[in-house]
Design goal:
Blueprint (H helix, E strand, L loop, with lengths): L4 E7 L3 E8 L4 E8 L11 E2 L1 H19 L6 E8 L5 E3 L9 E2 L7 H7 L3 H8 L7 H11 L1 H4 L4 E3 L1 H10 L7 E2 L10 E2 L4 E2 L1 H7 L8 E2 L5 E4 L2 H7 L6 E3 L4 H8 L7 E6 L3 E7 L12 E4 L6 E7 L2 H16 L6 H9 L9 E3 L16 E3 L7 H26 L7 E5 L6 H11 L3 E4 L5 H12 L6 H8 L2 E5 L6 H15 L2 H8 L6
Parallel strand pairs: 1-5, 5-14, 9-12, 15-21, 21-22
Antiparallel strand pairs: 1-2, 2-3, 4-7, 6-8, 10-11, 13-14, 15-16, 16-18, 17-18, 19-20, 22-23
Length: 510
C-alpha cells in the first residue's frame, strides 16, 4: 500500500518549523524559517501575522518539494503555535494589529487590575493573571479602544494561520482546550468560557472563538493555499493545539509521572498528572489540559529563558570581536567550572517572572568577582533556569503528592547541550532523557492531524512509531550539596518582592 503522509506546522517564537511524516514513523522532510521579532519600544515584542502565514506556506511547500511526496497522499495537516500571546482579527478573518507576543510586557498594569480576583481566575482557569490573553485583551480594549472596536475575534497565532489556510471568516475561528489556562476567562475543567469571568472583566464573550477538541477537522485547504504549498485543495485541516501541548504529545508525555522540559525560546517544565490541580496556595504553576482526554499537566516557564542564551552569546560576539561565539564553545568553558559556578548565581527573568507573576522581577548575576570567567557566567546562566525548575518541582510535589516523577524528556534547541541536560538532572534529582527528535512540536501536530482523520486510532501507539529515547543522564550525587545551597539562595532572591519593586522604579515607564 502506498504511504500516507501528514503535515505538522509549529509557529514558534524563534521561527516556523514544518515536518512531513509518513504513517510508518518516518520524518521524510522538514523545513524551518526564522521569525522576526519586532521591538518598537520598551516592553514591546510583536510579530507580523502575515509573516507567520507566509512562513507556514513556504515551509509546507519546501517539505513537499524536497520529499517528492505526491500531494494526493497527504491526508491532513495541523498547526500548533505560541500559547500566551494573541492575534486580533476582523470579520473577514484578517489581522487588524500586530501579534501581541507572550514576550510583550505592556499589559503589566492590567495584570495588576486583575490581581484582586486572581484566586477566582486561578481556580477556574488553572492559571493566575500573567502575560497572557486576559490582561492583553484588557490592554487593547482600554488602551486602543478604536482599534478594538474593529475586532471580531481574539485568536491564537496557530488559529490565525489555520484560518488563513482554510479561508475562515471570524465566526469560524476556533481555540482548543490546551490554551484555556492562559485565557483568564475560562472554566478550563469544563472546557468552556466562563460567563462569570467575562462579566467580571467586561470582556464581550462574542469576541472569543468557539472551543473545539484539538483533533477536530475544522476546515479544508483553499485553492490559494494549495497553489502556494503544492498540496491539494480540500486537504483536511485539524484544529491543532498549543505548541507546548503539541511538543508534549510528540515527546510521548502520555502517562502520569512523566516530565517534559522544553529548552526553547521559553524554558518550560511540565509534569503530567491525572487530575486538574490548580496551584491555589503558591500561585506558581499553571494547570492545563494535555491532548489526550483525562490527562493534565502542571506547568511553569521562564519567559524567554532560552532567549537569554542567545542574548548573551550575541553580546559576546559583539564584545570580543569574534566572528562566531557558539553554544558548544560556551559549554566547553562552563564544563571547566564546578557546580554552583564558584558562588555565582543568575536570575533568568529578563522579561519579568511569569510563574508566579512578578512583573517587577528582572535578570541579574549575583556574587560576581574578578575571578569569574566566561565559563562561570555561562554555567550560572544555565543553572539559574534549573533553579527555577527546582521551585516548580517542589510545588507540584505539594499539589499531587501521590504522583512520583521518574523521568524528564527534554526537547528544543537546548536539548542538544549535554552539559545542560546533566546539570538539570543533578539539580532536580531526576534522570534526563534525550530523544531521537529534539524538536517535537511539529511532529506532535502531524500525529494529531493523523489522529483527527483516522489514520491513527491510538495516540500512544502512534507516538511510539516516531519517538525513541536515545540517551539518559542520571543525577550525580556529588553535586547534591552545592545545588541544595544554590536552590535555597535562589529562592530567597526571587521571593524578595520589595527589592525588585524598588529597582523597578528606576526603569522607564512603558
Amino acid at each position: 500500500m502506498a504511504e500516507v503522509y501528514l503535515c505538522g506546522v509549529d509557529v514558534g517564537g524563534s521561527g516556523t518549523k514544518t515536518v512531513l511524516v509518513d504513517d510508518a514513523g518516518r520524518i521524510v522532510a522538514d523545513a524551518f524559517e526564522p521569525s522576526r521579532l519586532i521591538q518598537p519600544g520598551p516592553g514591546q515584542v510583536e510579530q507580523d501575522p502575515e509573516e507567520m502565514v507566509g512562513s507556514a506556506l513556504r515551509t509546507l511547500a519546501a517539505c513537499l518539494e524536497s520529499s517528492g511526496a505526491p500531494a494526493s497522499r497527504v491526508a491532513a495537516l495541523a498547526v500548533d503555535g505560541q500559547m500566551a500571546g494573541i492575534c486580533l482579527i476582523d470579520r473577514g478573518g484578517q489581522a487588524v494589529a500586530p501579534y501581541d507576543s507572550w514576550l510583550d510586557t505592556r499589559c503589566a498594569p492590567y495584570i495588576e487590575r486583575m490581581r484582586p480576583h486572581a484566586d477566582r481566575v486561578l481556580a477556574l482557569t488553572g492559571a493566575p493573571p500573567t502575560y497572557s490573553h486576559g490582561p492583553k485583551i484588557l490592554w487593547w480594549m482600554h488602551e486602543r479602544p478604536e482599534l478594538f472596536a474593529r475586532v471580531a475575534r481574539v485568536v491564537m497565532p496557530a488559529a490565525y494561520v489555520t484560518g488563513r489556510l482554510c479561508g475562515w471568516r471570524a465566526e469560524e475561528a476556533v481555540i482548543d482546550p490546551t490554551y484555556l489556562h492562559f485565557s483568564c476567562l475560562s472554566d478550563t475543567r469544563a472546557g468552556a468560557w466562563s460567563e462569570e469571568l467575562c462579566d467580571l472583566f467586561g470582556v464581550p464573550p462574542d469576541r472569543l472563538p468557539r472551543i473545539v477538541e484539538p483533533w477536530a477537522v475544522v476546515g479544508r485547504l483553499t485553492d490559494e493555499a494549495a497553489a502556494r504549498t503544492g498540496l491539494l485543495p480540500g486537504t483536511p485541516v485539524v484544529a491543532g493545539c498549543g505548541d507546548q501541548a503539541a511538543a508534549m504529545l510528540g515527546a510521548g508525555i502520555l502517562r502520569p509521572g512523566m516530565v517534559y522540559d522544553a529548552a526553547g525560546t521559553a524554558s518550560v517544565l511540565a509534569m503530567c498528572v491525572d487530575r486538574f490541580a490548580p496551584d491555589l496556595e503558591h500561585r506558581t504553576l499553571l494547570a492545563a489540559r494535555l491532548v489526550p482526554a483525562g490527562l493534565w499537566y502542571a506547568i511553569g516557564y521562564v519567559n524567554g529563558g532560552g532567549l537569554n542564551l542567545r542574548w548573551w552569546r550575541d553580546l559576546l560576539r559583539g564584545a570580543d570581536g569574534r566572528d562566531r561565539v557558539e553554544y558548544g564553545w560556551l559549554d566547553e568553558q562552563a564544563a571547566r567550572t564546578p557546580a554552583g559556578a564558584d558562588g555565582l548565581l543568575f536570575v533568568p527573568h529578563l522579561g519579568g517572572r511569569v510563574c508566579p507573576p512578578q512583573p517587577d522581577l528582572r535578570g541579574a548575576w549575583l556574587g560576581l568577582t574578578w575571578t569569574h570567567t566566561t565559563g562561570h557566567l555561562w554555567r550560572a546562566l544555565l543553572e539559574g533556569i534549573a533553579c527555577e525548575y527546582a521551585l516548580y518541582l517542589s510545588v507540584v510535589h505539594s499539589l499531587v503528592p501521590e504522583t512520583r516523577f521518574e523521568e524528564v524528556r527534554v526537547v528544543g534547541g537546548g536539548a542538544r547541550s549535554a552539559l545542560w541536560n546533566q546539570l538539570k538532572a543533578d539539580l532536580l534529582g531526576i534522570p534526563y532523557v534525550e530523544l531521537n527528535h529534539p524538536e517535537a512540536a511539529a511532529l506532535g501536530s502531524a500525529i494529531l492531524a493523523g489522529y483527527g482523520v483516522g489514520i491513527f486510532t491510538d495516540l500512544e501507539e502512534a507516538v511510539g512509531r516516531y519517538t525513541v529515547p536515545t540517551r539518559c543522564y542520571t543525577p550525580n550525587p556529588e553535586t547534591a550539596a552545592p545545588y541544595r545551597t544554590l536552590q535555597e539562595v535562589y529562592r530567597q532572591v526571587v521571593e524578595d518582592a520589595g527589592l525588585w519593586h524598588r529597582l523597578a522604579r528606576l526603569r522607564p515607564v512603558v
